[in-house]
Amino acid sequence: EAAPLAAMIPPPPPAHLSMRAEIEWLAGSADNARGVALALSSSLFIGASFIIKKKGLLMSVEKGGSSASAGGFSYLRQPVWWLGMLTMIGGESANFIAYAYAPAILVTPLGAATIAASAVFARFFLGEDMHICGIAGILLCTVGTVVLVRFAPEEAPVTSVEEVWSMAMQPVFRAYVCFVLSFTLALVYGAAPKYGKTHVVVYVAICSMIGSLSVMALRGIGIAAKLTMRGSDQLRKRETLFFILWVGCCIATQMNYLNKALDTFNTTMVSSVYYVFFTVCTVTASMIMYKDWENQTPGSIFWQVVALLVNVAGVHILSGTRDSAPGCRAGLRALLSRRKSEEKPEYTHLCACDDDAEQQQQQQQQQQ
């Protein structure tokens, strides 16, 4: 019994390594190291973009514009919102390049750094509270990230974009795409009009499932770009053009419902729930399409799952304690209690106030 456990424990790093060599040893390869560096820098940019875009949405409503949750687009006239959009584009660009060097099962869970960054930024720039237990959540996200990087799988060699296309045409992955599109349409036309303003899961589920499809196509585009830089032109092939078109449609849908979620709910809640759903959907899609775990040892898979669960736990602590009373005991009670708090969350209270105002207006009109 001790032998299998010992096989799961990684050996210590060789002595007298340079900083660059240590990073490559931790990530397993030079390509993985590049992907990790790009993914972490992407997380910082995206975490900041949540805050900047939220600020733009608030400024739009303060100036009398229609809120995004009500279907308005007045935020498009706010320079601050566009600054947040540019910041997100920069982060997503780094993330896009990361997928060209490292598998999705490594790059996507590193988004936990986005949650930690957005929680810290929201505390200082939006005045949103971060519970003392949030520090423990940030530490857990850090530990999970290090473990995940250490046991990251190697990317399977791909020599052409046609290979990526053949992976996308597998019957199992096509069934996954059909399920995602069908379930998303059901949420958009069934659940979102009724429960979108009171349940953060609705908007976030739409973003996450569509986002998993965009990541699969983004990885194909990244592979095509990498092969082109190495002398094999893949960017002008029809498969690459289809992937680009698919990504554009997916991102447009994601941005629409992400704006609705940010305008309705607390920033930390949105980013935390989005991380969990998006990571699960993307890792599932990547396992189906790219078969990331096909040639992995049981020990590597075990530690990757552990790292993912540690990241999820850290994210849950960050989001689950934001409305609890100060102190570690109160935070633990909030995490362990299954009962809903008697006090309404901020977003529910605001929705209730909007409903009361509409009812008063209707009563005044009837009296007149």
Spatial extent as radius of gyration: 22 Å
What is the average of the pLDDT values? 77
> pLDDT below 50 for ≥5 consecutive residues: which ranges?
338-358
Strand coverage percent: under 5%
Largest sheet entry: none
Element string (H = helix, E = strand) = HHHHHHHHHHHHHHH
Helicity range: over 70%
Number of strands: 0
For the termini, the CA-CA separation is 82 Å
Number of DSSP helical runs: 15
Oligomerization category of the chains in this entry: single chain
Topology, element by element:
Layout: H1 2-8, H2 19-27, H3 30-62, H4 79-101, H5 104-107, H6 112-125, H7 133-150, H8 161-168, H9 171-195, H10 200-229, H11 238-264, H12 267-289, H13 298-320, H14 328-336, H15 346-367
Helix pairs in contact: 1-13, 2-3, 3-4, 3-6, 4-10, 6-7, 6-12, 6-13, 7-13, 8-10, 9-10, 10-11, 10-12, 12-13
Describe the fold and architecture.
The longest helix has 33 residues, at 30-62. The protein has helices at residues 2-8, 19-27, 30-62, 79-101, 104-107, 112-125, 133-150, 161-168, 171-195, 200-229, 238-264, 267-289, 298-320, 328-336, 346-367. By secondary structure, the protein is an all-alpha fold. Helix 6 (112-125) packs parallel to helix 13 (298-320), helix 8 (161-168) packs antiparallel against helix 10 and helix 10 (200-229) runs antiparallel to helix 11. Mean pLDDT is 77; it is low at 338-358. It contains 15 helices and no strands. Helices cover 75% and strands 0% of the residues.
